[in-house]
Amino acid sequence: MNAHRSRRILRLHSRTVRLHHRLGSWGPLIGGFVAMATVFCLGVLGYMEVEGWSFFDSLYQVIITLSTVGFQEVYPLTRDGRILTMVLIVSGVGTFAYLVGSFTQVLVEGRLQQYLGRRRMQKIIDGLSDHVIICGYGRIGAVVAREILAENVAAVIIENNAEVIHSLDEQGIPYVQGDATADETLLAAGLMRAKTLVAALTLEAANVYVTLTARQLNPTIRIVARADAQGHTQRLQRAGADQVLVPHLYGGVRMAQSVLRPTVTNFLELAGRGGAIDLQMEELQVTEHSEIVDKSLIDAALRPRFNLIVIAIKKASGEMQFNPQAQAMLEAGDTMILVGSRDNLDSLQAIL
Predict the structure, then answer these.
(1) Burial environment of residue 43 by CB neighbours within 10 A (0 to 12, 13 to 18, 19 or more)
(2) Could you say which of 167, 180, 221, 249 is the most buried, measured as most Cβ atoms within 10 Å of its Cβ?
(3) Is the pTM value of this prediction over 0.70?
(4) In whole angstroms, what is the distance from residue 297 CA to residue 226 CA?
C-alpha cells in the first residue's frame, strides 16, 4: 500500500514539474491568448445582456471595437452600453499589447525556434526502431552513449538538464527533454519500438521507477540499469531489469584484473573497443533464414570461410556453450560470440 502511494506521489510530482516547465516557456503567450478570448467572450455576452442585441450584432460590435477600425455602431448605445464599450476598448487594447509583447519575448528568447527544433527532433526519433534509449546523460550515461554511438547504433537520450540538452543539440544527438520517469517521455523516445533501455540516472530510486514503468509499457524490451551498491541490485531486478551494474564495483574489478592479469585485460580491451590491429569481439545471432541454420560448426565452415573464431554459443534456451566442438549445431535463435576482423564479421552477418 505504501509503495503504491509512493508511486502515485512520484507520478503526481513529475506531472507537476512537466506542467511547470511547459508553462515556464509558453505561459505568458498562452495567458495572453486566454485573456484575449475571455475579453472577447465577455464583450459579446455584455452587449447581449446590456443592449439586448442578437449574438451576431453583439459579435460584430465586439470585433469593430477591439480592432479599432472606427466603423459606425450597430445601434445607438445606451449609457451602460457606452461604459461597456470603454471598458472593452481599454481591456482589449491592453490585452492585445500584452499578447504582442509575449509573442515578441518568445521570438527574442528563441523559444519558437526551440519548439520547431524539438518538432524536427521528434520526427527523427519517430523514424527510429530497434534503437537504444539512455535515461540520463551524466558521467555514466555520457560514456554509454559515446560507446553506443561509436558503433553506429541509433540511440535516444532522455535528459532534463537544460545545459546538457544544449550540448546534445550542438552534437546532433537525438534526445527527448523531460522526466524519464514519466510514461509520455518514455513513449516519446520510442519505447515501444526500442530494443534496449539503459537506466543511468543519478538517483537509484529513479532508476527503479524507470525500470518498472518501462517493463510495464514494453514487456519485451531489454533493460540495463545502474545501481549504487551491490546489495541494491535485487530491487532493480525485481522491478524488471535484465542486467544490473554497479559502476564503481565494475571499475574496481577491471583495475584489479589489470594488475593480476594485464595481458588478458589488454586483449579484452582490444577486442571490445578495437585498437592498433583489426580485431573485434562480436555477438551475432543465427536466424531461421540463415544459410548456416541447422548446420554444425564444421559444416558451416566459419573458420576457413571467414577466418573467425567461435568462442561460445548461447542457445535460444539460455544455455551457454563455451569453446564449442566442431559438431555443435547452430539453430535458429542461437547467438554466437566470435573474434575476428571487422570486415569478416560484417561478411558473416550478411549471411545470418
Answers:
(1) buried
(2) 180
(3) no
(4) 37
Q: What is the spatial distance between Cα 307 and Cα 234, in angstroms, rounded to a whole number?
A: 41
- Are 106 and 112 in contact by the 8 Å Cβ rule? The answer is yes
- Is residue 301 classed as helix, strand or coil in its secondary structure? coil
Average pLDDT over residues 221-233: 90
Distance CA 94, CA 105 (A): 16
What is the phi/psi pair of residue 135, to 5°? -90, 110
Neighbouring CB atoms inside 10 A of 199's CB total 31
The pLDDT of residue 80: 87
Provide the 3-class DSSP secondary structure of residue 10: helix
The pLDDT tens digits of the residues spanning 74-95 come to 788 888 888 888 888 888 777 8
> What is the pairing mode between strands 196-199 and 132-135?
parallel
For the chain, what percent of residues have pLDDT higher than 90? 31
Write out the H or E segment, with its range, that includes residue 330: strand 329-330
Q: List the single range of 94-98, 218-222, 243-247, 305-309 with lowest mean pLDDT.
A: 94-98
Q: 21 falls in which pLDDT band (50, 70, 90)? A: very low
Cell of 115: 519548439
- Please enumerate in sequence order all residues whose Cβ is within 8 A of that of 25, keeping only pairs 6 or more positions apart, or say none: 111, 114
- Identity of the amino acid at 130: D
Check: CB of residue 141 under 8 Å from CB of residue 135.
yes
